[in-house]
């Protein structure tokens, strides 16, 4: 009986080897391209006797492995487009001992979020982060991410994933809430008038923290808005940036508190974060206050992700991105070049999508349109909050939460130390498809490869 089934496998090889394979452009390469895109390069074959799987390596077909179900996975040695694959499977089903044949289809994570198509940074083959490949197994469930930023606004595409946070702004005037530190991380707006904050021009509120948080953990598959990178993770919003920015002393305390450390006269954090995102910074060397706070967070097991800065300069001159024990993130544009604004240098660890939002007249001949930015959750108010909204931003502030979201996916799958997280991020990048002058770390983050290899 065994000879009968071995013969069936031999027939499989001959059927495939002799098959006339039509292709998109009359070439094997075109056939392989269509096959790979549709998932027709491998097939799952079921036999009435599992002993038939042996001796399969024949001309035209290669045995990949036996599956847990007892079926055998085979790979075509020639390109098969849709029609060729159908003919092959029909021929094979007629062979003795073959019970069933089906293509080993490529599945992708699906989302029904209404504006997901605008999130090129997540899925585009050229310079996206390959998030759908990671979503096949990872969603960030059980992982808490602290966003140390301007605080949070209420948003229907984010609220379900927001945990209690804290307002660490000690200056009541900068906080705009009438007091100093408190347990309400509501974003009161960081707008200022002309002549304030060292600027001759006025500036509207950015709702920056909510944009960052949405990139990481916007609710997915809710038929609304965008998809978060780690849509089952939770955000702890921590407010440190108000009118005119924020002080290092407040930010350092926020780092300590976020990671589960104790801060005087502040209740302990009931939800210590395994990931901290800091899309903030300024010129200067890494201060000892920052380094001590970061080192403490890392010792408590928290990975600290920091935006490299937007000055088109060496990151070594910008803190806290130049501190030790952080993942320093540069920004790329939609074509995979280092974004024109992004800092660079030897201290960059990885690059992630940060986008570019400019008019064609700003950079003739370039494709830098609003849709090339990073879309996320904000509020529509120019100064104080009004209605919820979405908007495209650009910056290393947008690149960093792509990395923080990926770290949340990683930690949802496997417990890793901050050092292991950084090593895995850096080892599983792909080369930037565009250009980078000055140093962009090991490359562009790849979520699918990272999750597959941790």
Structure overview:
The chain has 454 residues and is of the alpha/beta class. It has twelve helices and 15 strands. Helix 7 packs parallel to helix 10 and helix 8 packs parallel to helix 9. It folds into two domains: 102 residues, Alpha-Beta Plaits (2-Layer Sandwich); 338 residues, Rossmann fold, CATH 3.40.50.200. Strand 14 and strand 15 form a beta hairpin. Helix content is 26%, strand content 16%. The longest helix has 18 residues.
**Percentage of residues assigned to helices:** 25-40%
Cα-atom radius of gyration:
26 Å
Shape verdict = elongated
Mean pLDDT: 86
Task: Give me a quick take on this structure.
It contains 12 helices and 15 strands.
Properties at a glance:
Alpha-Beta Plaits; Rossmann fold; alpha/beta; 15 strands; seven-stranded parallel beta sheet; four-stranded antiparallel beta sheet; 2 domains; 454 residues; disordered N terminus; 16% strand
Q: What topology does this entry show?
A:
Blueprint: H1 2-17, H2 28-38, E1 42-47, E2 61-66, E3 72-76, H3 82-93, E4 98-103, H4 120-123, H5 131-135, E5 144-149, E6 166-167, H6 172-175, H7 208-217, E7 234-239, H8 248-258, E8 275-278, E9 282-283, H9 288-299, E10 303-307, E11 318-319, E12 327-332, E13 350-353, E14 374-379, E15 388-393, H10 396-413, H11 418-427, H12 447-453
Parallel strand pairs: 5-7, 5-8, 6-7, 8-10, 10-12, 12-13
Antiparallel strand pairs: 1-3, 1-4, 2-3, 9-11, 14-15
Helix pairs in contact: 7-10, 8-9
């Amino acid at each position: 009986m065994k000879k009968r089934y071995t013969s069936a496998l031999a027939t499989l090889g001959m059927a495939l080897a002799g098959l006339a394979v039509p292709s998109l452009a009359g070439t094997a390469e075109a056939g392989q391209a269509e096959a790979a895109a549709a998932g027709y390069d491998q097939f799952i074959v079921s036999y009435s006797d599992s002993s038939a799987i042996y001796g399969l390596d024949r001309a035209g077909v290669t045995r990949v492995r036996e599956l847990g179900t007892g079926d055998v996975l085979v790979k075509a040695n020639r390109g098969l487009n849709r029609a060729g694959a159908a003919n092959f499977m029909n021929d094979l089903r007629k062979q003795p001992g073959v019970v069933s044949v089906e293509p080993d289809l490529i599945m992708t994570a699906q989302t029904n979020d209404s504006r997901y198509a605008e999130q090129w940074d997540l899925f585009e083959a050229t310079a996206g982060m390959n998030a759908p490949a990671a979503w096949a197994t990872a969603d960030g469930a059980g992982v808490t991410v602290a966003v140390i930023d301007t605080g949070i606004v209420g948003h229907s595409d984010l609220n379900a994933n927001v945990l209690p946070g804290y307002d660490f702004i000690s200056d009541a005037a900068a906080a705009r809430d009438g007091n100093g530190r408190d347990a309400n991380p509501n974003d009161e707006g960081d707008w200022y008038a002309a002549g304030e904050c060292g600027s001759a021009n006025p500036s509207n509120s950015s709702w920056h923290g909510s944009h960052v948080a949405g990139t990481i953990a916007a609710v997915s598959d809710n038929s609304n808005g965008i998809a978060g990178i780690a849509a089952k993770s939770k955000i702890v919003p921590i407010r440190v940036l108000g009118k005119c920015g924020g002080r290092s002393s407040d930010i350092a305390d926020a780092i300590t508190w976020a990671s589960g450390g104790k801060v005087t006269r502040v209740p302990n954090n009931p939800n210590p974060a395994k990931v901290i995102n800091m899309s903030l910074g300024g010129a200067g060397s890494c201060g000892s206050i920052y380094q001590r706070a970061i080192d403490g967070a890392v010792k408590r097991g928290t990975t600290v992700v920091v935006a490299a800065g937007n000055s088109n300069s060496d990151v070594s001159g910008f803190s806290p991105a130049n501190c030790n024990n952080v993942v320093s993130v540069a920004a790329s544009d939609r074509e995979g070049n280092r974004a024109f604004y992004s800092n660079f240098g030897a201290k960059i660890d990885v690059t992630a999508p940060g986008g570019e939002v400019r008019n064609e007249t700003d950079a003739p001949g370039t494709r830098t349109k609003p849709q090339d930015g990073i879309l996320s959750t904000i509020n529509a108010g120019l100064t104080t909050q009004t209605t919820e909204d979405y908007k495209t931003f650009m910056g290393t502030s947008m690149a960093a939460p792509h990395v923080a979201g990926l770290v949340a996916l990683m930690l949802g799958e496997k417990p890793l130390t901050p050092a292991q997280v950084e090593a895995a991020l850096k080892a599983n990048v792909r080369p930037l498809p565009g250009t980078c002058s000055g140093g962009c770390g090991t490359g562009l983050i790849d979520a699918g490869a990272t999750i597959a290899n941790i």
